[in-house]
């Protein structure tokens, strides 16, 4: 194993852009962060304002926040081992308890960066060398941050900068400078984002390569910069509404690593997106056109059907959302053609309505027999079908 790391360091020494600020560069700002008053610990805005008050540039602002978090927030190993991870998802609780797991560290860092006027994102992905000896590639197991400083995206991991040395069954507090503004070529040796753009590499590392020893990853990187324009991908993603960002990320994550977990996650995010579209329909003005309503409801149905293709673990409320969209669409189509006399148009519309209602009945059958909603919707489908069946041509 030692020769692997020697080869890794040798190869990395020839890679362009493999630079990292020395700890000596931050002595003054670190000293300032170290002197943060204790009475500010639970006051995120005031604490952040203090930390950045002596910073001379964006890098020092980020450094002050990183230094404070890694020296004051302890890794909550009990929460991780017991599965009580949600306790670490609220910044107020993290500051009060001064404990977090990786998602908490990265969310707190992002929130403090937002207060400091810094552009920061949370990145989820796969890791090597945390609680397990080999990467768990079935689902993401770690989170860190990407931050744009002086118009350049950089990488850091406050969790590993704080407490990721393990001795026996205990975590030992340590300072690991390697994980502050780490060069992407180094970071990818043990951090693989779900979405390749966050590698910040022109030649992204794929999953099989990441599962190899570090020297194999370095060989891959040494072959050249590649032509993947990660900055363009990041710019496009950030231009999307939040609901579309989540869907875009989930698609990319599944394309990159098509595990069962990523497939199911994509299915649920398709359903979440259908829910967002449903909310937008509810907010339409009363005088909205039927055509607009029909177009939006068809998109809801489309995304519900995609969700079902990717996951078989839907919740009952998600099935109900699908049923509601199908029945409402049938009603809207009926209203849209009610006064039309063209026989071909009527038959086409009634045939489409019938298919929507039969599909709704199939999904209602998946609901528990005790479901009051299911019984209501089943009766509604039956009544609608009785109205249109005489006008539907045999198929």
How would you portray this structure in words?
This protein is α+β, with helices and mostly antiparallel strands and 395 residues long. The protein has 2 domains: 2-239, no CATH class; 242-391, no CATH class. 56% of the residues lie in helices and 10% in strands. The protein has 18 helices and 9 strands. Strands 8-5-4-3-9 form a 5-stranded antiparallel β-sheet. Strand 6 (165-167) and strand 7 form a beta hairpin. It is elongated.
- As laid out across the biggest beta sheet, the strand order is 8-5-4-3-9
Distance between the termini: 68 Å
Overall form: elongated
Percentage of β-strand residues: 5-15%
Largest sheet: 5 strands, antiparallel
Mean pLDDT: 86
The count of strands amounts to 9
- Count of the separate structural domains: 2
Structural class assignment:
alpha+beta
Q: What low-confidence regions span 5 or more consecutive residues with pLDDT below 50?
A: 1-19, 164-171
Number of helices: 18
The helical percent reads 55-70%
Pick out its properties.
single chain, 395 residues, alpha+beta, 2 domains, five-stranded antiparallel beta sheet, two-stranded parallel ribbon, 18 helices, 56% helix, elongated, disordered N terminus
In short:
The chain has 18 helices and 9 strands. With 395 residues, the chain is α+β, with helices and mostly antiparallel strands.
Can you lay out the helices and strands and say which pair or pack?
Elements (H helix, E strand, L loop, with lengths): L1 H11 L14 H8 L9 H9 L5 H15 L1 E2 L1 H6 L8 H7 L1 E2 L1 H14 L3 E9 L14 E8 L2 E5 L1 H6 L1 E3 L2 E3 L7 E3 L1 H4 L3 E3 L13 H4 L3 H9 L7 H10 L2 H15 L3 H23 L7 H21 L5 H22 L5 H22 L7 H17 L7
Parallel strand pairs: 1-2
Antiparallel strand pairs: 3-4, 3-9, 4-5, 5-8, 6-7
Helix pairs in contact: 1-11, 2-4, 3-7, 4-7, 13-14, 14-15, 14-16, 15-16, 16-17, 16-18, 17-18
């Amino acid at each position: 194993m030692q020769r692997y790391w020697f080869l890794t360091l040798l190869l990395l020494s020839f890679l362009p852009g493999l630079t990292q600020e020395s700890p000596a560069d931050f002595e003054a700002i670190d000293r300032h962060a170290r002197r943060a008053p204790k009475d500010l610990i639970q006051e995120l805005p005031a604490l952040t304002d203090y930390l950045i008050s002596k910073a001379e540039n964006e890098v020092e602002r980020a450094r002050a926040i990183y230094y404070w978090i890694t020296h004051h927030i302890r890794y909550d190993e009990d929460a991780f081992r017991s599965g009580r991870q949600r306790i670490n998802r609220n910044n107020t609780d993290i500051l009060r308890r001064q404990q977090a797991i990786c998602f908490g560290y990265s969310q707190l860092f992002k929130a403090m960066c937002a207060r400091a006027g810094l552009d920061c994102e949370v990145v989820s992905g796969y890791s090597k060398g945390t609680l397990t000896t080999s990467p768990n590639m079935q689902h993401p197991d770690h989170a860190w941050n990407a931050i744009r400083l002086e118009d350049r995206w950089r990488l850091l991991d406050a969790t590993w900068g704080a407490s990721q040395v393990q001795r026996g069954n205990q975590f030992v507090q340590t300072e690991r400078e390697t994980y502050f503004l780490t060069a992407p070529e180094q970071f990818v040796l043990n951090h693989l984002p779900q979405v390749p753009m966050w590698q910040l590499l022109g030649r992204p590392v794929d999953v099989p390569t990441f599962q190899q020893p570090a020297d194999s990853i370095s060989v891959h990187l040494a072959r050249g910069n590649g032509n993947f324009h990660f900055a363009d991908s990041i710019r496009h993603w950030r231009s999307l509404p939040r609901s579309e960002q989540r869907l875009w990320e989930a698609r990319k994550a599944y394309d990159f690593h098509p595990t069962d977990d990523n497939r199911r996650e994509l299915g649920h995010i398709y359903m979440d997106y259908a829910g967002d579209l449903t909310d937008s329909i509810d907010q339409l003005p009363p005088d909205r056109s039927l055509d607009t309503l029909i177009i939006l409801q068809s998109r809801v149905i489309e995304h519900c059907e995609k969700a079902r293709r990717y996951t078989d673990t839907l919740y009952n409320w998600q099935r109900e959302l699908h049923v509601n969209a199908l029945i409402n669409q049938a009603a809207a189509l009926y209203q849209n053609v009610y006064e039309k006399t063209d026989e071909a148009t009527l038959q086409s519309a009634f045939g489409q309505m019938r298919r929507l209602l039969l599909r709704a009945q199939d999904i209602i059958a998946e609901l528990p027999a005790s479901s009051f909603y299911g019984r209501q919707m089943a009766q509604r489908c039956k009544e609608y079908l009785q109205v249109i069946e005489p006008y539907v041509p045999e198929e």
